[in-house]
What does this fold into?
Amino acid sequence: MKTMGPPKVELPSPKNFLKKHSMEKTLPPKKKFDRNEPRKPPVPLRTDHPVMGIRSETNFINTNAADVILGVTKKPKPIYVDKKTGDKHDLETSGLFPKYINKKDYGVTPEYICKRNEEVKKAQEEYDNYIQENLRKAAMKRISDEEREAVLQGLKKNWEEVHKEFQSLSVFIDSIPKKIRKQKLEEEMKQLEHDIGVIEKHRIIYIANK
It folds into this structure.
């Protein structure tokens, strides 16, 4: 009921209530007994005689001798004994007999594994080509000294503008909007100072093509 939901079965009708003797087994109808009715085949009469004198012309002694002479000799089943009490076990299924190394396909890689290895190799080559193509498209580009100097001067100019705006704030920060504005200007100044420091520290700068 937890997994399949409440059982949906038809409710029994109130008219079909349990009646007396309804669960008792009913016996088959009685048949008229007839003493003259035969139940088994009749017994042979004393005057009946079995058929006798039938003889086969087959020489079973010669037939059996020919079968033994011409038949293939039955080889004994290989066994091994592992206890001093003489317990015998099958040698082929024991793992002691070199059964599988004598097969023609022993040590040969199955066809489905070769096919799978080829598919994996092909997928790896496609993936390597895809990575090389992306690396080629996203090759690093070195910016010139003029571009570096222009970026550095632009960052310093932006820092001066933000710093000037920060200096123009009121001395008393007594409202939430003023606090938010002050925090925003401080974060911008901090980020600009970090970028200026990185560019001034490194003379050679590479950028990735998007």
The CA atoms of residues 124 and 130 lie 10 Å apart.
